[in-house]
Amino acid sequence: MKILLVEDEKKISNIVKSYLEKEKFEVSQAFDGMTALDKFNSENFNLIILDLMIPIIRGEEVMNIIRESSNIPIIILTSKTEEEDKISNFEIGCDDYITKPFSPKELILRVKALLRRSTLKSNINLNTLTFKNGSLVFNLDSKIVKLNNKNINLTLAEYNILLTLFKNTNKVFTREELINLVFDEDFDSFDRAIDTHIKNIRSKLNDNPKSPKFIKTVYGLGYKAVD
């Protein structure tokens, strides 16, 4: 799982990063609010650890902006200890709150507990399927796909192709197999039409075919989903 660590004190950030990496988490560091938002908008994360007293854009505003589009778990890390501060940040949308000075071991325990709760919550709805550590969600009733809690505007054909691939993660499908599985029997098309659909899906997921996070081309064979 990948964590965005937003802390302007580099010594503290590096210590926390080291503890997280020992627990096999992937960590991306940001030392100011602007960088944090840029990384959040360009990468996939499972949890954010956010200091409030950071430069350029304060932590409270960073959290406000993120909460406009995402319910990703957020742990506030701060020296503010007043009850009013804690209440206001829970009202904005943080999921947990830990004050400085703190024990890195306690922070790790809180991270793990919050990720467990988040995973359980995402699996409550039996009419959804989740992949990529919960960042990619299919609603089987509405046929809506969300990536990091943002709707991805797919056509029905694109939805069916993507769902077929991810329901069979790491299985390679030929173009002909995808046509037979996804479309009606009287669907009149040539197999290269699948390439166009895949190209459109990748564009909507911001998936780089040279370094794919979602759909990998298996040259000479077809495509497979990467979870």
TrEMBL record:
GO terms classed as biological process: regulation of DNA-templated transcription
Record's keyword annotation contains Transcription regulation: yes
InterPro entries tied to this protein: CheY-like_superfamily (IPR011006), OmpR/PhoB-type_DNA-bd (IPR001867), Sig_transdc_resp-reg_C-effctor (IPR016032), Sig_transdc_resp-reg_receiver (IPR001789), WalR-like (IPR039420), WH-like_DNA-bd_sf (IPR036388)
One GO molecular-function entry: transcription cis-regulatory region binding
CDD domains xrefs: trans_reg_C
Pfam families for this protein: Response_reg, Trans_reg_C
Segments forming domain Response regulatory: 2-115
Residue ranges of every copy of the OmpR/PhoB-type domain listed in the record: 126-227
Alphabetical keyword list: DNA-binding, Phosphoprotein, Transcription, Transcription regulation, Two-component regulatory system
Positions of modified residues (4-aspartylphosphate): 51
Entry protein name: Response regulator transcription factor
Keyword DNA-binding: yes
